[in-house]
Amino acid sequence: MDAAGHGREEDHVNRCTVTTGFFVLGRCGRQAAASCGQCGRPVCAEHAAPSGVCPECLAAQGYGSQDPHDPAWARGRRRHYYQSSSHAYQDAAWYSSFDQYDRGAFNPGDDYAQGGDWGSDDDTGFVDS
Amino acid sequence: MFWRKQKAAIQRFHPLHRALTLEKGFTVSLRRDDWEPVIQSLARHTTEIRRRKWRLDERVPGALVPMLRILASDMPPDGVLSVAADMRGAELPEKKGPEVEMPVRPPVLGMHQWYALDPWLRMRAELRDGSVLELAVTDRVRFRRRRQRGSSGKVKIKTKRKTVQLVQVTRRFAKDAAVRRPGTPPPASVRVQVKQGGRLVVRASGKFREPLVDRAIDRILQVSTEPFRWTPPGTAARRTT
Known about the structure:
The structure holds two protein chains of two kinds.
Chain A: H1 3-12, E1 19-20, E2 26-27, E3 34-35, E4 42-43, H2 55-60, H3 73-88, H4 92-104
Antiparallel strand pairs in A: 1-2, 3-4
Chain B: H1 4-12, H2 15-22, E1 25-31, H3 35-43, H4 45-48, H5 59-73, E2 80-86, E3 100-102, E4 108-126, E5 132-149, E6 155-172, E7 190-195, E8 201-209, H6 216-229
Antiparallel strand pairs in B: 1-2, 2-4, 3-4, 4-5, 5-6, 6-8, 7-8
């Protein structure tokens, strides 16, 4: 397949758009295995919770973990951190830039929709959708 | 044989967890994913260990584990996270500074003062945007020991301590990083130093009175915010290729 064709094929791959990281944000970018039962965003097998919702929706419902030993703790704490640090620094742009990026996953055409941290080494197991 | 079950449990811990339990500290560099078994081992501690001598310091679940989680989430799989943790306390002789005699008036017979520097947490992480983050949390403790004669002639010795917590976070940006100065200054409690060069370096320092264990992570994150405000969320990890 030529390069252009390969590019078109990758465009059709349904990737997980869950926000990753704490200070340095990115998108998960793994192949999606399901979609969130609440917001409908594509979610990979690792980020799909047994309840069927994505981590952001789970945290928004107040089910974020309070135990730092839990792998999901940092993800649940992220939005609270950006809110409190934006207040402490009196920097509204700090929170709004995070909020824009985090919500960007829900707007496929948005500039913030991509910005993933996936690279060429992540494209294992992709199939045509 | 006393504490047989708990001794056996300690032997089953991860070696770094065991070092934190028995020696109250460790210094090690591991790849990102190699820290997960350490954290999972630490999670079992309170259920398996009850002896006071082997309890983990409150700063381990209060600051060390949260910072491991946060920094690991910002790192690539092959990134190295180095940690030097020392939970032995500020009373050790090697942390003690020179003693000075303070002027006193009766009924105080004499007073000595000295400072101890206790750098109990140092971390270095290679982040996925190519920058390197260094974190240091140091307790500076002032000790004052005074001798005082009471009305009955009995001499009492009392030692008081006062702690100031110093948090220093340094971020060395990648060579091609798109960096811009934040629009608003940091809070008065955070001091910022910027070093220009091939790779921009931003250092934020904070000083806090009366360190509270349950607020240590908030204070560390408050100081850590400043170096990351130079690259707004979402921009640093974006790839153009």
